[in-house]
Write a structure and sequence with these properties.
This protein has 14 helices and 22 strands. It is of the alpha+beta class. The strands form 6 sheets. The chain has a 5-stranded antiparallel sheet with strand order 1-20-3-16-17, with no helix packed on it. A 5-stranded antiparallel sheet has the order 9-10-4-12-13. A hairpin with a 2-residue loop joins strand 18 (about 300) and strand 19 (about 305-310). The longest helix is centred in the first third of the chain and has 50 residues, at about 15-65. The two termini are about 45 Å apart.
Length: about 550
């Protein structure tokens, strides 16, 4: 211990001051160790609770999933013309067939160098296939007289139908750095415009140069006629305007529609502005005799069925979309529920019933000094056993889990109102569930809606008896977790304001205060025994003096 002042035991008295102080400090060290062990054990308990909290919270989140009708009433769809239309269905969809005619699928605004064409170079003396912008745009590929490095050499505006931005290349970039068609594509891809909210927004027009075909393409990533590709050049800007117009016309862009590329387009002149614009197309479909026109994209939800349109259906041959309940998926989901329930329950039951190993306890620092790291870890693993033996919170959690699956769901109609009626029973007194898959499939085939209600029904008044099993578990565990948060916190963090967190902080303060007392007590012992040593030395000197007379 700290607190020793000076050097002791050197007066010749024969008194071993250091040993006497160590003996005197033993009882004080034991008192300190008792507080230390309580603090460490409380930390371990907090860690154990944190582990339980994490597992229960994860399970509760899964119960939130099982409350969704997509889990307990999954639907499946088939399409007779899956290359033209596909579909998905939610729990609100009816089990029935639908006729779907696709007159036209929504398409992107799409421009591409026309088939059989290559990009033209204004500089006829350029090497074949040159990708340099100066060769595509400028006669001779040379810089006009008087054009400085920082001046614009190419400049145009590009629009997606919602916003517009300007793309510019300086003379230095075009004539000195020799930027290419790939750089043109990249600059378009990175283009941003100021949205209505004032924030920079992606243009969402994808550009690409293909060196194999020597072709260029532009595509708006969104479908529908509101989403466009617009290019415009200010021809009043002299050589820059003329060169930029040359470059865009030289791309030989044609409209792509239904897999066919149209003839090359050129920028039309209106006043001093040369421009071109193409728009996407809207989808037009008929579902069960009802027409839906001007759809901006290829998805449409009708009565719980979401249709995806890919292309037009043959004239006079509509697609038949069949909607049915996915019984195999429901069986799979129920099996998953049973597995997850058993995993949590078994873990809680194990911790609740695991007795404390009384042969092991918290090691003091002095005890650890004579042990290896591996020995300490093994010892602590044994010492941590039984931390939650017969714990009240674990007992409540186990009880909630069992009650939720045992009790009848009063809102479930007919014969399928208990988990046992659909083949889910407790196989032993721990509450571990056993699934009879054959019985489950029979119940699903007979009354799928009743099975759905049994598992997931959410009573608007939060009535426990009417609520489905997953809803019961979710609500009960939510309350239990709140109480755990107050008692032990949500993690092993010992500085939180939970009851255990405050207790740990209290122990730490006790240890800090006790260390100060021990240091003071140690100093007093040294002073006491030093004085004793001096006195003995004096007596010894006097005795020797008189004995020598």
């Amino acid at each position: 211990m700290a607190g020793a002042k000076g050097i002791y035991g050197l007066s010749g008295s024969g008194l071993d001051v250091e040993s006497l102080v160590r003996v005197g400090m033993i009882s004080e060290q034991k008192k300190y160790d008792r507080i230390y062990k309580k603090e460490v054990e409380t930390e371990w308990r907090k860690e154990a609770y944190a582990n339980v909290y994490d597992k229960v919270n994860t399970f509760k989140s899964r119960m939130s999933d099982y409350r969704l009708s997509s889990m307990t009433k999954p639907m499946t769809t088939t399409s007779s013309l899956s290359d033209a239309v596909t579909a998905t269905a939610n729990a609100n969809a009816g089990v029935m067939s639908h006729n779907v005619e696709v007159t036209q699928a929504a398409a992107n605004a799409y421009l591409m160098t026309t088939a059989g064409q290559k990009i033209h170079r204004t500089n006829t003396g350029a090497p074949t296939g040159s990708v340099k912008l100066k060769d595509v745009a400028y006669a001779g590929g040379t810089r006009p007289a008087g054009m400085a490095d920082g001046d614009a050499a190419l400049k145009f505006k590009i629009s997606n139908g919602t916003g517009t931005t300007e793309v510019t290349f300086t003379a230095e970039e075009v004539f000195t750095k020799n930027l290419t068609l790939n750089d043109l594509a990249q600059r378009i891809n990175n283009a941003r415009f100021n949205g209505a909210d004032g924030k920079k927004t992606a243009l969402d027009i994808r550009a690409n140069y293909d060196s194999v075909s020597d072709g260029f393409s532009l595509a708006n990533s969104k479908t529908g006629d509101a989403n466009k590709i617009g290019l415009s050049v200010d021809t009043a800007s002299g050589a820059v305007g003329a060169a930029t117009r040359n470059m865009l016309d030289n791309l030989k862009l044609g409209t792509v529609s239904n897999g066919t590329i149209g003839a090359p387009m050129t920028l039309g002149l209106s006043g001093t502005t040369a421009s071109l614009e193409v728009a996407g197309t809207n989808a037009s479909v008929k579902i069960d005799g009802r027409t839906y026109n001007n759809l901006q994209d290829n998805k449409l939800e009708v009565n719980g069925v979401t249709y995806t349109f890919k292309k037009a259906t043959p004239v006079g041959t509509p697609a038949t979309v069949n909607v049915a309940q996915d019984q195999d998926k429901l069986v799979e989901n129920v099996k998953k529920f049973v597995e997850e329930y058993n995993t949590l329950l078994d873990d809680l039951v194990k911790q609740y019933g695991q007795k404390t190993n009384r042969d092991y306890g918290v090691l003091t620092k002095s005890q650890e000094e004579g042990m290896t790291k591996e020995q300490i870890e093994k010892w602590n693993a044994k010492a941590k056993e039984g931390l939650l033996f017969r714990d009240d919170q674990l007992r409540s959690l186990i009880s909630d889990l069992r009650d939720a699956v045992i009790n009848r769901v009063q809102s479930a109609p007919g014969r399928y109102s208990t988990m046992s009626s659909i083949g889910i029973t407790a196989k032993d007194q721990t509450g571990h569930l056993k699934l009879d898959e054959t019985k489950l499939k029979t119940a699903i085939a007979a009354e799928p809606d009743a099975v759905n209600r049994l598992l997931s029904f959410d009573d608007e008044n939060n009535d426990y008896g009417n609520s489905g099993v997953a809803t019961r578990l979710y609500n009960k565990l939510t309350g239990r977790l709140k109480r755990m948060e107050a008692y032990s916190g949500v993690s092993a963090n010992k500085s939180d304001m939970s009851e255990l967190g405050k207790l740990i902080q209290n122990y730490e303060k006790q240890m800090s205060d006790f260390k100060k007392l021990m240091s003071s007590f140690e100093s007093k012992l040294y002073k006491k025994y030093n004085a004793m040593e001096v006195a003995i030395s004096r007596l010894s000197t006097q005795f020797n003096f008189f004995h020598g007379q």
